[in-house]
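Let us practice reading a record.
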Amino acid sequence: MKRAVFVAIALTTACHAQPPPEEDSQVGITIGRPASGTSAPCPDGDRPLLAPAALATTPTSCTFNPCDPYCRVYLDTAPGVDGGGSFTSGDGGLGLASADAGAAASACASLSPLSDVAMTVTSLSPVTTSPASASFTTALVPAGCLPGAFAPLWGASRYDLGVVSAGGAYTHVVPVPANVAVTAYAGSLSVSANVAVTVLVNDVSAAPSGFNVASFSGAASSTEAAPAFLYPYDGTIFPLGLSAPLVMWKRAAGTAAAKAVRVTLKFPATGTSTFRWTAIVAEGSERFQIPQSAWTAFDQTAKGSLGAIEIQRIDSKSKLQSATTIGVRFATANLRGRIYYTNYASTADVKRVLPFGNAAPTSAFTPPIAKNCGVCHTFSASGNKFVTSSHGDAATLGYNTFGISNVQVNGDLAALHAGPAGSGDSRGLAFAAVTRDGTYALLANNWWGNPNNGSNATTAGSAGAAFKVFRLPTTPGAATDVTASGFGGASNAWGLGGATPIQMYTPAFSPDDKRLVYVNGDATGDASDAKAASRQGVSTLEFDEATKRFSNRRLIVKTTTGTARYVRWPMWELDSRSVIYQSAATNDDDGFDWYAGMLPSGCCGRKKVRGELWSVDATAASPTPVSLTEINKGLGASSPLGTDDTNRTYQPTMLGVAAGGYRWAVLTSVRAWGNMLNTGTGALSTMTNKLWVAAIDDTPSGAVDRSHPPFFLPNQDASASVLNERGYWALEACKPADVASSVCASSEDCCGYNPAAPGSSSAMCLVDAPLTSPPTFHCKSTSAASCRALTETCTSDSSCCGFPTTRCVNGACQNPPPIAKHTAASFIRDYSAECTTGKRLAWRAFEYRSTFPAAPGASIAFSAATAATQSGLASAVPVPLGTQTATNASWVGVDVDPRFRAATPRQTSKAWLRVVMAFTPAVGGAGTPLLTDWRQSFDCVDAE
C-alpha cells in the first residue's frame, strides 16, 4: 500500500501538574472522548515551560480543555498539507487522489453511445451549415459509477475543417465535405460519432430574372445541339491554390443565346455528389468567372482525385438541355516557386508572377528594365542566379546594367554586374547554359546563340567560332572569363575546342550538372550519325565539374530521317535524364539568322513558327522521342472557334522539383485561350504569346505520352497587345519548421518533409489552432525520432510521449480527464514531545472532523504507535484508535495514552507518536472520505 510519510514535529515541554485523564466514551461508531471540556476555568497557576526550538508548527494551549493548564495541542488543517502522490488537499479536506484506473479496473465500464449526424454546407462565404452545429453528450456507464460532475475531452478527427467545443458541439468552418469523427475521451474510455458533411450550394445571385434551381430539374427536352467547352480543357490537371479559372464555352452554330446557364463544380466526377456548387447565370459572353471561394473549396475537396465541371443551358425556347461535362484532376500540392518571364508591351520588362494566389505580376527589377534587349534571360536550375544580355554598353545599344543578378528570398533580383565586357554583342548571355548553383555560364559559339551569325541559320557553323565560359560572381563584381582554364589548354579547353569546336545552340545543364544538352549547330553528329544537319539534331555531353571537362558527345534526337524537322529549346526535366524540346517541320521556319530562329515572338516582323513539344530519355540505349500530344493539341482544328491551334507551343522550361505528384512545365504558346485570346484564323504572326503551365507524369520519358492538357497561367497580363514568353521557374527555398514566418500551403513547402515516406518526415504543413475560416497553416516539427510533449503538435496518438494515456486530440497531445477512481492509502503524521524529570509524557486526545461521500464503503481507520525515537516508530506495535464511516461536523476523537496502557503487552507514551490514518474509498473507488482538520494533544503528568 502506498503511504505518505510526513516530517515529525518535535516540541520540548516542562510540566508541573496533571489533571486526571478523562474516561473514553463512544461517539457514533467512533471510540473517543468528548472534544471539549465543560469544567469551570481553573485558577491561575504555574504553566509548563515550553522550548519550541525552531519548529515548523508550534503547539498551543488546549482551548477546548481550559482546566488543564499543562495541555498542549498540535492543530492540522487540510489546506497546504502535502499529501504526496496518493492524496490531495484543499479547502474541502485531505482525501485520496484520483487516478484513471482503466476501464477494466473501474466501476465505469464505458461511455454512452453518440448518434451520427448529417450536416450540409449551404453557403461558402460566410460558411453556413444546416444544422448550424451538431451537439453531442455522453455519460459514464453504468449511471452513478462516478459521483460529481463529468466533463470529457472532445476532439474532431478533421480538426483542419471544424472545431468541437468543450461541451461537445461540433461546428464545420471550412466548406469541404468530409466524414468527421467526433470523439469524447475520458481516461482510457472513448466513444465516437460521425458527422457526415456534404457541400450543396446553389448560387442564384446572378441568375436572370425568373430562373432558379428548380428551372434545371427534370429530364432534358431541348433538341438543340449541345455547347462545347473551350476552357478549361478536358483532363487538365490543376495544382492546388490557383486563382479560379474563367470557364468558357461555345454554343452550337445557329442557336440563339440561352435563357439561363447553370455552371456546376462537382465531386466526385460521377455518382452521388458530396460536393456540388452551382451558379445560374446569363449566357451573355459565354464565359463565367468562378468565384475564388468556390474554386478553393473545390480543389481542397477533389485534391488527388477527379472532379467535374458542367454547363447546362435552358435554351432560347425555354427547354432544358443535357449537361456538357469535362473532368479536371487536382494534384495534392501547390506549385512552388515563382515564374519570371519576358514581357513585351510598349516597353520591355522582366516580370515575376506567382502561379497561385491572386497577385498581379510585378517587375523583377526596381526600377524596371524597360529595354527591349535586356529582357531575354536564363536562370540557374536552383533559381538562385539570373542572367540577361546586357554588358553595359548603354551608349551604343541602350541596354541595362542588370546582366547578372542574384535571386533574393523575396523574389527581387539584386544586380551584381552588367555582364561580361568585351567587343561585340553580348546578347548570347541570355541564351547561356548556367550550372545549377549559378557558378558557371556557358555561352555557345556566338554570343547570340547562333554558331554562324550572318548567314542562314540552317547552315553549319564555321570551325573558327568559339565558345565562352564565365565564372559568375556571387557578390557585386564582374564575371571571370575562364574559357582557357579548362584542362587541355586553350586549344581544347573544357573539351569543347580543338580543331573543330563543337557547334551548339541554346545549351542547358541538367539539374544535377552532370550533362549538357543542346541543339546541333554543325553537320557532324557522332559516330552513329555522321550526317546530322544543323538544327536537326539534339545532342548531349557528359560534364565533370571537378575537372572542368565535357566529354562523350551523344546524339539523342535525329530529325533528318523521314520528314525533316528543326528542333529548338531542349530543356532537362528534373530527373536529369528526360529532355523536353520543341520541333516543327523545316518548311515551317522563318530562316531568321538572329538567335538561330529560336524566338517565338515573331521579332522584327518575322513570322511565328509552329511548335510541337516532344520528350526523350537521353540515357536510353536507343533514345526514342515521344510527342507530348496532350500539351500540343489545344482545341484543335475542329474546335468551335473554327481555328486550328494545334502545335502552337514553344520554349518549355521545368519546375526544379515535383509538386503534388507531377512535374510541371511552363510554356510559351499562341494557342486559343477559350474565346478570350487568339481566337481568329489568321497567321500565327497575328497571335499573342502567353504563358501556360502543364503537368507531366513524374516518370522518365518512355514510349507513351506523359503529358496532360495545360492551363492558362493565372495572374499574367492577359491583354492581347502584350507578349509574355520565355518563362523560367525560380524555386523558392523550403521553409523551416516552427518558425512564425513559415506559412505553407502543403507539406512539400517544408524543410524535412519526405514525399516518398511522409511518415518519416521531420516536418509537415499543419493547420494552426484555433481553427479559422479559411484555415492557416505553418510548417511544424513532426519528427518521429522523439515523442511530442503535452500541448505540442502531433499527427497521431502514437507520436505523443504519454501514449496510450496521452492522446493526439485536435492536433495536440492532450491527457483526457481521468475517470476519478480512488485506491486505498494511508496518511501518516509523526509528533514529538518531552517532559522534565519527575514527569512522564501522556499523549492525549487525537480528534478530527470529516466528510464522507454518498457512495457506501468509505472509511478512515485510525491507529497509533509510540517509540523513544522517530526511527523506532517503524517497528513499534500500533494500537487501534477507531474507525470513522460517516460525516462528523463536530470534533470527535480518542484519548491515546489509555489505549497504550490497555494494550497487550502494556505500553506507555514515549517521546514520539505516529498516528496512521488509513483511507478506504467508496465501493469501486467512486469517492473518497475527507479529513477537514485534525489535532493531537499531549500532557506531562506525575511519574508513577
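A brief commentary: Residues 1-56, 391-399, 453-458, 525-531 have pLDDT under 50 and may be disordered.
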